[in-house]
C-alpha cells in the first residue's frame, strides 16, 4: 500500500487578462509522485442538477396526491350528506299522521263548498259548524279550513259576477254583499280584488231594475229613480239611475 502525504499545491494559470484562474489541486505522495485530487461528488454540478430534479419530482407527486385526497374526501362527504338526506326523507314519509275520520269528512265538505259553491273562507267554516248546516266540531272545521286548497280571491270574483249578471245588482250593492256578515263574508281585500276584476254594465243593471219596478210594482219614474239611488235600496249612482229612467220605455 502506498501512503500519500497530501500537500496541496494549487496550480494557477494566467487568464490572459491579468487575472489568475484556479486550475486544479495536486498532491505529492511519499513515493514522490504527483496525484490530481478529484472534486468530491457533492461539489460537482451534475450532482446538484440531479438533486433539484429529484426534489421537484417528489414535491409534484406529493402535491398531486394531496389534490386527489382532497377531492376524494369532498366526494365522500357529499355522498354521505345525500345519503343522510334521503334517509330523513324516507323516515318522514314513513310516519303517517293518524287523522280522525271526522276531520277527513270536514275537509271533504270544505273542498266542495269552496270549489263548487265559491264560498268564502269564513262562510265555509260557519257552514261546517252550523247547527243548521254540517254540525262538525270546531276542531274538525278548523282542520278543514287549514288544509283546504282554495283561491278565495277567485271565489269572491265568481260571486261578484253572479250578483252582477243574474241579479242585476249595483256595484255598491255587490261590494257590500261580498263582505256582509249576513252575506258572503269575504274579507275586504278579497272583495276589493273582485270588484276590480268584475266586468259588468252597471247602467244596464239599473235599467233592468227600473223596468222590474215599473212592470211588477207599477211605480212612477220619480219613485223608481229614488229607489234606484237609495242607500237602503239599489244603491246605483245618479248617472246610472238617470240612464235607466231615460230608457225606461225603449
TrEMBL record:
Keywords: Membrane, Transmembrane, Transmembrane helix. Pfam families: Lipoprotein_Ltp. InterPro entries: Ltp-like_HTH (IPR011434), WH-like_DNA-bd_sf (IPR036388). Residues 66-96 have a biased composition (Basic and acidic residues). The chain crosses the membrane at residues 45-63. Gene3D superfamilies: Winged helix-like DNA-binding domain superfamily/Winged helix DNA-binding domain. Residues 62-96, 211-250 are annotated as: Disordered. Residues 102-148, 151-195, 201-248 form the Putative host cell surface-exposed lipoprotein Ltp-like HTH region domain. This is Putative host cell surface-exposed lipoprotein Ltp-like HTH region domain-containing protein. The lineage of its organism: Bacteria, Bacillati, Bacillota, Bacilli, Lactobacillales.
